Fold this protein.
Amino acid sequence: MGAGFELRNFTSNSTEVIAALDGVDFDKVIGIKNGLGTERVLRLHWHSTTDNFKFGLKFSNVSEAVMSGTRCPTKRELLSVVMSIFDPLGLLGNFVVGAKLLMREVWRHETRWDEPLPVNIAASWEKWRRQLPSVVRYTCPRFYFRNGAPETLQLHTFVDVSENAFAAVTYWRAKNARGEVEVAFICAKSKCAPLKPLTVPGLELQAAVLGMHLQQAVCEAHSFKPNKRLLWCNSTTVIKWVRSKHRKYKPFVQHRIAEVLATTQVSEWRWIPTAENVADEATRANHAIVFGPTVRWVLGPSFLREEEQAWPSEDAVSPDSDEYDEELRPQHALTIVVEDHSLGYTVRQNLSPNSN
């Protein structure tokens, strides 16, 4: 106000607030004349009556023939479709990852910008395109704690990886004074796996780094802090690396473990079966997505609504040991000296324990 920026529009999800603002000197108090409706917030649609986020998809630069399935899109049109879905919180992370992977495959095939998609990719595109109408009907609650202020608050981050993508998703687990447990979706992030091949444990470690960054961003973005933080991973290898005491790994693993432990504690990392890992839904390409406020992606894993004693156990994680590990740095070298006096030269060859 002091700098000359005056409030122009105002709306609320409360009819009492809207009524109280009636007559205040604003250009427009949204919702007074026509009742509470839908407004756009950072290109998301906020339905103030239900206090839910919705998506309105517009593909202005893409032919109607493409969106109706009459014609296969070009590389340029596919990119336009992907970039038209603005989802800063990752509410559609388990769906948009399919489009990202389609785009990656187009780059792998070296398709030109105005060439149609290759035949083997066109079928995957059509399956993904048919799910777009469901996105418009999809809603996700905006407000975290609908059962009242939490007495105890936990932040849970799930990470997972496939050969195609890796992802992380976060949830609040809140328990109020009455002992009621509530789980709320916060945000998610997914990335395509690099075209340069990595081992599966290496990709799983990349997912752990992504989850660590996502957890840190959530903590920095909120004024309230959780009483407890947990990161869930279904890779026993990553859990073993994080909990190891010797730190004798090769640079790729060693640097990422150091990055993970810079902002997280060893005790915060827990193992989880793949079937219970909700982040798995954002790592699979071209799978059918069920949209709605009651699906696991929005509600979080069911075990979070139970007491901690019922959470997944860690029997599958073996304790740290000095057993052979392909990511361990070689500790010794074996030198073989071959002398051939007839030829007058000496050959020296160093072999590490991992040499074949």
